[in-house]
Write a structure and sequence with these properties.
Order of helices and strands of chain A: HHHEEHHH
Helix content of chain A: 40-55%
Oligomer: homodimer
Number of helices of chain A: 6
Low-confidence stretches of chain A: 149-162
Shape of chain A: elongated
Strand content of chain A: under 5%
Strand order of the largest sheet of chain A: 1-2
Radius of gyration of chain A: 18 Å
Distance between the termini of chain A: 27 Å
Number of strands of chain A: 2
Largest interface: A-B, 69 and 65 residues
Chain lengths: ~160, ~160
Amino acid sequence: MLRLTKKADYGLMALKYLAEQAELADKAGADLHLSGARSAKDIAEAYHIPPQLLAKILQTLARAGLLVSHAGTNGGYALARPAADISTFEVIRAIDGPLFITSCITIHGTCDLAGHCTIKEPLRKVNDSITSLLSGISIADLTEPVDHLPAPMAGGLVSIER
Amino acid sequence: MLRLTKKADYGLMALKYLAEQAELADKAGADLHLSGARSAKDIAEAYHIPPQLLAKILQTLARAGLLVSHAGTNGGYALARPAADISTFEVIRAIDGPLFITSCITIHGTCDLAGHCTIKEPLRKVNDSITSLLSGISIADLTEPVDHLPAPMAGGLVSIER
DNA sequence: CGATCTACGACCGTTTTGGTCTTGCTTCCC
DNA sequence: GGGAAGCAAGACCAAAACGGTCGTAGATCG
């Protein structure tokens, strides 16, 4: 499956939305501090996703330092950093937790299959490739889709340039 | 979490094991047809994984055409193709089903969020990169670990600490 | 004060995972 | 020919993860 959860999806959509709002507010020369701030409800309505769920996701993102929140009337969330400085990897990790492609690699690097898991090492490299791939894609890239993609493999070896 | 299931892990381990057995049998000049065939129980014992579960996984793999099975006494499973010709992607897809990184991309290409899922397209590219990454790694590569690692993508804006 | 909004934790139904059991069919070997 | 060893397949089940809701509390602005 190797798929990310709906929550992560929602989170990315929300971030992208906020990035667009920030850009708009920027052009209008709005107050920098809260430029593009939007309430959870607004975003939820824009994408037709459950408001309460989105709220929780945004809270998580805020706790992770990716968003700044402002309570009270006309409050809401805004990007804590420029969209180009927030990677999709950070978002996914904040929402879905640390990503480890194989089940035997834990945070402690220990494998529950102890000695006999012979496959751990090669998969860890795959894992690293994916994280660096995701790290290379920022929220800004979602708005303006990335055109330079990792090239497919060569021969039997993994070779990804750029 | 973006992690693959234990079944896929088990499957890969089993394939790797069979690849090693095939290599050994090859060197000994054994009968080509069943070279390196091993029973599910043998493999399960080698890695301390539930035999019945492994059996089911191997059956799936056999149905997918990655393994050939042979019933009866001294039967078992063997690689249907050379290890270098079986990609990890095939294995994972056979076990875990089609892999789509985002929940909104289905087999029909439809997004349950219909028009308002603005994030689908960029993520599909990420998805493609991962599949081609996995496609580039064969079972043989698991035995002889890939040394050439994908270079982190350009624009190292984000530093990942673990 | 009161209308908004975030913050947070408890809770719950559904799906997915991981794993077991049972039954049946093949093939080999004595 | 009859077991024993092995695959094949499906029903079944418990535990965990996922997706989502609710209720309450606290901040902020007008």
